[in-house]
Amino acid sequence: MVKAVLDGGRSVVALTGAGVSAESGVPTFRGKDGMWKKNRPEDLARPDAFAAHPELVWEFYNWRREKMGQCEPNPAHVALARMEKTLPNFLLITQNVDGLHARAGSRKLMEMHGSLWQVKCTVCTHAREDYSALPALPECPVCGHLLRPGVVWFGEPLVPGVLKVAIDQISKADVFLSIGTSNLVQPAASFYQLAKDHGAVTVEVNLEPTPNTGFMDFALHGQAGDILPELVTGLSD
């Protein structure tokens, strides 16, 4: 049934969260992955933490970059890239910062929380994509001030325009997919309601039920890497 809904959808928006990348071995920082060197990641991914302890925060992010560099896109990432090529109007919105969707081939992609592979200056407008090993305290090549990870930290607003585009596209969608997200973080946790309010069919794909499960039109529970390839198989080219 969900496959038929997708095949008939003129406009499809997919939202992905940490569960998709967890299948590639990316730490989710929940459960056994919940600490890093006795620090809670939520306490490091903050502007005030960076201001007070920039070397510690960069050590954490360089460790994350090293870990992500060892991970590969999984079948869920690949299926979403194929969905983009198959469906006439498709947008992928991700809360993940690991870059695995892009590596899998997704191009109609919005990285809501930025990317670990982006760095930007804390003073001037310099920003770049950088996959190299970075020093403990990387400096801006333009002005010499400290660089920071190009991600959205707790307490920071989203990149200007990102939320507006997301709301606009979700409002026009026939089908909204929520994949591998616990639906606990706003504003993404409310995207399904926006989609429903505008008449979209809503589908949850997640390892286990979430707070939004009972409000979805369809809920498919299991590994996204098992479910998404099945949904993509047979879609009209």
From TrEMBL:
Substrate binds at Y61, R64. The keyword Chaperone does not apply. Gene3D superfamilies: SIR2/SIRT2 'Small Domain, TPP-binding domain. It holds the Pfam family SIR2. PROSITE patterns: SIRTUIN (PS50305). Residues 1-237 form the Deacetylase sirtuin-type domain. The keyword Zinc applies. Keywords: Cytoplasm, Metal-binding, NAD, Transferase, Zinc. InterPro entries: DHS-like_NAD/FAD-binding_dom (IPR029035), NAD-dep_sirtuin_deacylases (IPR050134), Sirtuin (IPR003000), Sirtuin_cat_small_dom_sf (IPR026591), Sirtuin_class_III (IPR027546), Ssirtuin_cat_dom (IPR026590). Its cofactor is Zn(2+). Binds 1 zinc ion per subunit. The active site is at H113. NAD(+) binds at residues 17-36, 95-98, 180-182, 206-208, 224. It is found in: Cytoplasm. It catalyses: N(6)-acetyl-L-lysyl-[protein] + NAD(+) + H2O = 2''-O-acetyl-ADP-D-ribose + nicotinamide + L-lysyl-[protein]; N(6)-succinyl-L-lysyl-[protein] + NAD(+) + H2O = 2''-O-succinyl-ADP-D-ribose + nicotinamide + L-lysyl-[protein]. NAD-dependent lysine deacetylase and desuccinylase that specifically removes acetyl and succinyl groups on target proteins. Modulates the activities of several proteins which are inactive in their acylated form. Belongs to the sirtuin family. Class III subfamily. PANTHER family: NAD-DEPENDENT PROTEIN DEACYLASE, NAD-DEPENDENT PROTEIN DEACYLASE SIRTUIN-5, MITOCHONDRIAL-RELATED. This is NAD-dependent protein deacylase. It comes from Pseudodesulfovibrio sediminis. The gene is cobB.
